[in-house]
Amino acid sequence: MKSTFFSVAALAAVVAAAPAKNNLLALRQAAAQVTDADILNYALTLEHLEDKFYREALANFTQSDFAAAGYDETFYNNLKEVSSDETTHVSFLTAALTKAGAKPVAECTYSYGVTDVKSFLATASILEGVGVSAYLGAAADIMSKNYLTAAGSILTVESRHSAYIRATLDQAPFPSPFDTPLSLNEVYTLAAPFIVSCPDSNPKLPVKAFPMLMSSPDNPKNITAGTKITLLTPDYVVKPADGSSQIYAAFITVTGPVFTEATPVDGGFSLTVPTAPEGTAPIAGQSYVVLTGCNTTVSDDTVAAGPAVVEIAGPGGA
């Protein structure tokens, strides 16, 4: 079993000692190293994953299979429209990259772990939610106004896909007044387990995957603020370099992360889902949580593992 060590004290000291102005400058300099072509290829990587996911599932499961699982013909036909949208997104991004003189990434080989209609829809809901967070998180780094507008138009469609599938699964279609942005690396961490291999000729993307973090299947079905849950760290152990510093779980929101102490348990960490401070985005719907040694900020330098996807009911239970 692998161990992931990190210096909690060092991370906290750096964040506390660096003036806010310097932090902003560092973020801008880091963002400047990522080009629009990188971001479009990153988006294309995700669209390929979704496109193949729907095409493969609709080839494997017939309308009769969906009917047997309790879904009518209208829903099945709407899923074909969703699939068509994803194919169109692939075509658009491929053409945009080619026109800009950049090489577009090609489709990879994937393994989705889908065995039936139920597991297909559960995975579809997660992928659509991640897609929304991916476009939202990348938007601030897109320099071209034309590309930003195009990405925004794809984002709104992905959001409608997500709401439609969530409603069909009896989840709140719009559980929060805010969506959650994720960084390139956070999104890639969630996408990487589905990717088996990619063509060697694909352009290399400036992304990395953090160690995987998973919501335990034994967690309560209805998770709300105040619920105690377990996050699993499969095949590795996260612990601070000094052996004693506190590890935190950070729930990501658009208004900033919300922290709670994480307690080591066999196979991972236990924690209590926190309540977001008044006047900030709530922790609700498809939520994302990372492990970190810092309780003041979340960045690629402070994340030890994750994100994990956790479905959290809002105050009204929706």
What do these coordinates show?
With 318 residues, the protein is of the alpha+beta class. Helices cover 42% and strands 18% of the residues. It is built from eight helices and eleven strands. The protein has helices at 8-17, 20-32, 36-60, 63-68, 73-99, 117-138, 145-168, 184-191; strands at residues 2-6, 109-110, 195-197, 214-215, 228-232, 236-240, 247-251, 258-265, 268-272, 285-292, 303-312. It has a seven-stranded antiparallel β-sheet with strand order 4-5-9-8-7-10-11, with helices on one face. Strand 7 (247-251) and strand 8 (258-265) form a beta hairpin. Helix 3 (36-60) runs antiparallel to helix 6, helix 6 runs antiparallel to helix 7 (145-168) and helix 6 (117-138) packs antiparallel against helix 8 (184-191). The longest helix has 27 residues, at 73-99. It is globular. The two termini are 38 Å apart. Residues 5-32 have low confidence and may be disordered.
Instruction: Report the uncertain regions.
Output: 5-32
Q: What is the N-to-C order of secondary-structure elements (H for helix, E for strand)?
A: EHHHHHEHHHEEEEEEEEE
Tell me, what's the shape?
A: globular
- Tell me about the biggest sheet? 7 strands, antiparallel
Number of helices: 8
Radius of gyration: 20 Å
Mean pLDDT figure: 89
Structure at a glance:
By secondary structure, this protein is of the alpha+beta class. It contains eight helices and eleven strands.
